[in-house]
Amino acid sequence: MHLVVINTAGKQRYIFSSRKRKEIVGASDLIARVNGSWAQEALQATFPGFGPEWRLKDGHAAELITAGAGSVTVLVREPDAGRRLVTELTRRALHQAPGLDVCGVVQEVSDSEPLAKGRERAGKTLAASQETRPGPQSRFLRLPLVEDCESTGLPAAGMLREAPDESPVTRSVVSMAKLAHFPAALERLAADARTTPGTMSKIVDRLGLEADWVAVVHADGNGFGRLFRGLGESKDVHSARGDTYAEELRTLSRGADRCALRAFHAALDRLADEHAVWNVGGSPPVLPLVLGGDDLTVLCQGQVALPFTRHYLEAFERETAADAALRPVLARAGRKRLDAAAGVAIVKRNYPFRFAYDLAEELITAEAKQVKEWASALAFAVLLESSAPDLSRLRGSVVSSGGAVATVSPYVVGEGAGDPRAEGRRWSDLVRRVAALRRRDADSGEPLVPGNAAHDLREGLCLGADVAKARLGLLRTRFAGDHDRLEALDELGNDSGRLVWEHEGRWVTGLVDAMAALPFLGGEGETR
Predict the structure, then answer these.
(1) Those residues with Cβ within 8 angstroms of residue 501's Cβ, 6 or more apart along the chain or in another chain
(2) Which of 50, 210, 215, 326 fits a 20 to 30 Å CA distance from 222?
(3) First-residue to last-residue Cα distance in the chain
(4) What confidence score (pLDDT) does residue 404 get?
(5) Is the predicted pLDDT of residue 523 greater than 80, yes or no?
(6) Which is nearest to 406 in space by CA: 439, 366, 436, 371?
(7) pTM for the whole thing?
């Protein structure tokens, strides 16, 4: 038998190559079509009568294993049929989604080779093929000289009037293809978010024209690669045909898709209830650009980004633990549930989203994945500058001198919050600190922790743990006898009330993140 693996490379770059919200939404729909309608139509064209129930062991010519997030994996009997499938799907992408990098390989799996090993070799072959072939940029030559597209910077292919009262502007074929798929994308996004295309269009307008702050949220499953590889190590999956391995791979892939969608719905429901002031037509301002398996990318209003991410991660854990089809596969891997890590980049509305996504991804790899062995976690950053972000520089700008205090990020959510290792870095700790900064005196209405006092403490943190402790001591002396103010100061610290404490050999604090999150974690009197 032969394994066909088709993958879309550079998905996030393709989505966020433009600042135009309609193009971003249209690009997400084009990627979804690769593993959706285009894959189904290519399978039907290559194997007439094909259905998802087809299995090689039953005498069929092909068997669909996984399809999600722009990737497709299929088992076929004949290599020529596999090559026709790759040709059919990649040609469709080339014509209807110019600029999208879709590539496929056909890998033979011998009778004596476990299917898991064949899949691993196919992945390596695909990666090598994508690296050596010319990328999508080579399709858009600049000779003879042509004008640039105003949106993407690629060679312009025509003029387009975005609105009746606006002048026509230059657009590339990539830009026009994305815009052409915007209406269909609204239909898909509305279905994912259980709302109407009209409401989804209003959400796009809110994020593009009205919201001061928007956020890119990216979530990635913890240990998924190891889990997929582990399916091939069990003794009962080494048959020549690989039937058991294929079934478990299919079960895991579809189960993760199913649980991710349920978790997304649960997060939206919680947002709609808890932060109704930000709703658009009854729906939270959230655009699900990529939603498949362990991969989630959404664009949303800044004020709902942190609670959405927390609710999604917790719901993803619950759904995977409760899914009847997933439970046996996870049990054989020694896991009770699946968990994930998320990065949240909150930026101004007109900030380039490709930079915001890069920051969200870096937050995952540099911080949120620190606890991937035992918990789900999120890390976030609020960008107050216009330059391209660098996480080490952003964190270093807060703790600029020797011996200074680092952020306690990431923040643990879900089941892992009960672990002793999560002390001081639980989601509830962040919420408690933000609440302490919001608390006001019952009589005067003034903040219990004045803004100048909080900034003085933050400045002390930049100068080192000893300076921060000394400034906190001065505040305690200043507030001596005022129980409420002293209590608010304690709530800015860890479980023991310490503003600065030692964690894994370094001094850490939660105050800096609490001050950054203050405008984005709603409190009493939340208004638009």
Answers:
(1) 424, 493, 494, 507, 508, 509
(2) 215
(3) 59
(4) 67
(5) no
(6) 366
(7) 0.93
pLDDT in tens, 319-372: 999 999 999 999 988 899 999 999 999 999 999 889 999 999 999 999 999 999
What are the backbone angles phi and psi of residue 272, rounded to the nearest 5°?
-60, -35
The count of other CB atoms within 10 Å of the CB of residue 36 is 17
Selection from 295, 111, 165 nearest residue 218 by Cα:
295
Residue found by looking up tokens 């030559």 in the block: 141
The continuous run of DSSP H or E covering 102 comes out as strand 101-108
Cβ(252)–Cβ(231) below 8 Å: yes
- The overall average pLDDT reported for the chain is 90
pLDDT of residue 235: 46
Residue found under tokens 């032969």: 2
What is the CB neighbour count within 10 angstroms for residue 10?
15
What is the residue type of 192? Answer: D
For the record, the structure tokens of 447 come out as 């903040």
CA separation for the pair 135, 97 (Å, rounded):
14
Burial 454-474 (b: 16+ CB within 10 A, else e): beebbebbbbbbebbbebbee
User: Which helix or strand (DSSP H or E) is residue 125 part of?
Assistant: helix 115-132
Q: What CA–CA distance (Å, rounded) separates 393 from 409?
A: 15
Q: Which burial class, exposed, middle or buried, applies to 59 when counting CB atoms under 10 A from its CB (0-12, 13-18, 19+)?
A: exposed
- List of domains in the chain: 2-132 (3.30.70.1230), 148-180 (no CATH), 194-395 (3.30.70.270), 427-520 (no CATH)
Beta carbons of 421 and 477 less than 8 angstroms apart: no
Predicted confidence (pLDDT) at residue 401 exceeds the cutoff of 90: no
Helix orientation angle between 427-438 and 483-491, rounded to the nearest 10 degrees: 150
Q: Which residues contact 95 (CB under 8 A, 6 or more apart)?
A: none
- Full DSSP string of 328-385: HHHHHTT-S---EEEEEEEEETTS-HHHHHHHHHHHHHHTGGGGTTT-EEEEEEE--S
User: What single string gives the DSSP state of each residue in 438-486?
Assistant: H-B-TTT--BSS-HHHHHHHHHHHHH-HHHHHHHHHHHHHHTTT-HHHH
State the residue for tokens 């709530």. Answer: 491
Q: Got the DSSP string for 207-219?
A: IIII-SEEEEEEE
Q: Residue 340 burial by CB count (10 A; 0-12/13-18/19+): exposed, middle or buried?
A: buried
Chain position carrying tokens 């989804």: 200
Say if residues 335 and 323 touch (Cβ distance below 8 Å): no
